Amino acid sequence: MEVLERKGQEAVWQRPKYVEELRVRRRVGAKGRVVIPAAMRAALGMKENEVVDLRVVDGELRIVTLRETIRRVQERARQYVQPGTRVSEELSAERREAAKHE
């Protein structure tokens, strides 16, 4: 279910456009463990040993992959960056210039 879109030379993962509603009821096991069903992991693009962020929002536990968090930040930042601009190159150039003056 993983969707990759080419942006320049970089492949960017995007959440699938449509994912059927998945609902499951689970018991909390030993040491607070909860198993995420395979269909849900696939719908979220989760891989084994992947880093996830957990947080409580409005009484709900939300689990987000690091990749999804990065995608969201990139999406928000896009509105502030001119098309064709490489922010990493600009940052490196600024750092090199600052280092000259130290």
How would you describe this protein?
By secondary structure, the chain is α+β, with helices and mostly antiparallel strands. The chain is built from three helices and four strands. The chain has helices at 38-44, 66-78, 87-100; strands spanning 3-7, 10-14, 52-57, 60-65. The strands form two sheets. The chain has a two-stranded antiparallel sheet with strand order 1-2. A hairpin with a 2-residue loop joins strand 1 (3-7) and strand 2.
In short:
With 102 residues, the chain is an alpha+beta fold.
Give the termini separation: 50 Å
Query: What is the subunit organization of this protein?
Result: single chain
CATH T-level fold name: Pemi-like Protein 1, Chain: D
Which secondary-structure class do the elements indicate? alpha+beta
Low-confidence stretches: none
Count the beta strands: 4
Shape: elongated
Give the SSE order as H and E letters.
EEHEEHH
Q: What integer is the average pLDDT?
A: 80
What's the helix count?
3
Biggest β-sheet: count, sense, barrel? Answer: 2 strands, antiparallel
The CATH architecture is Ribbon
Helicity level, as a percent range? 25-40%
CATH class: Mainly Beta
The gyration radius over C-alpha positions equals 19 Å
Strand content: 15-25%
Strand order of the largest sheet: 1-2
Any idea how many domains? 1
